[in-house]
Amino acid sequence: MRLSLSALQPGTYYLYVVSPLTGSIPLGRSRGIVVVHAPEFLRLGPEEDITLDSGSLYDVAGRASGSSQQSVDIDYAVVDVDGAPLVHLFYSADPDLGVNNALADAEGVVTLDNATRLTAGGLSEQEGVFSWNILAADFVAAGAYYIYAAANDGSQTALRRSANQVHVRHAPFLRLDALND
């Protein structure tokens, strides 16, 4: 028998075993089953370590090849059975940020200590791809960063860190052209 808990209100529930011989008198009871409808992240990119370089020296693998990339697509997915929380993306060099570093306001907007926000007001799609360009308006210092995703459904906050890092480099770029006199 399969039991769906998505329609139950959050709380503690018990399963009882009864028999036609005992009628409504239970033969046994399960331990408490706690139902919580917190947001949960299913995935968060990038799928592999990637190097972004504003100076066109390092490629995505971090090799000095003269061809670089300045943006990365961050794939994310969150599920919440009783709502549609906003998804907030951040980057941080700290690999150990947890839910205790996240703070949500009454509208569900999450801030994360020791992290820089990538999404201004949050993303309303529960699943999608966000493109992060290091040449955008805000300067991104050189370093190795993890991507964090946070979501708050009004009562609970979920946080996930990417398994892989984004390495940001700003290699000097000097182009020498042949003089045509």
Summarize the structure.
The protein has strands at 11-13, 16-17, 28-29, 33-35, 40-44, 50-53, 71-79, 87-92, 102-104, 110-112, 116-117, 127-133, 143-152, 157-169.
Protein described:
The chain has 181 residues and is mostly beta strands. The protein has strands at 11-13, 16-17, 28-29, 33-35, 40-44, 50-53, 71-79, 87-92, 102-104, 110-112, 116-117, 127-133, 143-152, 157-169. The strands form five sheets. It has a five-stranded mixed beta sheet, with no helix packed on it. Strands 5-7-12 form a three-stranded antiparallel beta sheet, with no helix packed on it. It has a two-stranded antiparallel sheet with strand order 1-4. A hairpin with a 5-residue loop joins strand 9 (102-104) and strand 10 (110-112). The protein is elongated.
List key phrases describing it.
14 strands, three-stranded antiparallel β-sheet, 181 residues, five-stranded mixed β-sheet, mainly beta
